[in-house]
């Protein structure tokens, strides 16, 4: 049985979203699309001067994929909130898997809601983001 926002309960898991591997081209394209041209994401010399071995992915690139976990499952019209905390860098070459799990079904102003725990993990097992989505279950 496929779970929906109407039937979801605590412990249910949402379909995951996987993207990558992260390439320098991906980072350059994302910088252009987002307007985030911070050189730490696209300039190897700058990254090395900052004490890093290489550039790394924009945190918002991964956060967007966390959002996709919620909206692919419930639809954009049901999303009521999205937040995340960056916990580690996403290096070039990494593949990122974003997952979601229903942690709570509750009522807000008389309407049914779902709290979804979200995580982004790279292929070596490092969690790079954790977050939360609030979804209308009406």
From TrEMBL:
GO terms for cellular component: fatty acid synthase complex. The lineage of its organism: Bacteria, Pseudomonadati, Pseudomonadota, Alphaproteobacteria, Rhodobacterales. One of its GO terms (molecular function) is fatty acid synthase activity. Gene3D superfamilies: Hotdog Thioesterase. One of its GO terms (biological process) is fatty acid biosynthetic process. PANTHER family: (3R)-HYDROXYACYL-ACP DEHYDRATASE SUBUNIT HADB (PTHR43841:SF3), 3-HYDROXYACYL-THIOESTER DEHYDRATASE HTDX-RELATED (PTHR43841). It comes from Shimia litoralis. Residues 21-104 form the MaoC-like domain. Pfam families: MaoC_dehydratas. This is Dehydratase.
């Amino acid at each position: 049985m496929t779970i929906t926002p109407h039937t979801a309960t605590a412990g249910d898991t949402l379909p995951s979203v996987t993207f990558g591997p992260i390439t320098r081209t991906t980072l350059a394209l994302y910088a252009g699309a987002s307007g985030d041209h911070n050189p730490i994401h696209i300039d190897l010399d700058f990254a090395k001067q900052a004490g890093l071995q290489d550039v790394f992915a924009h945190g918002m690139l991964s956060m967007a994929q966390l959002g996709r976990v919620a909206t692919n499952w419930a639809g954009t019209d049901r999303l009521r909130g999205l937040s995340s905390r960056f916990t580690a860098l996403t290096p070039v070459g990494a593949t990122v898997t974003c997952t979601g799990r229903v942690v709570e079904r509750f009522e807000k102003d008389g309407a049914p809601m779902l709290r979804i725990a979200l995580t982004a993990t790279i292929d070596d097992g490092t969690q790079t983001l954790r977050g939360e989505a609030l979804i209308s279950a009406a």
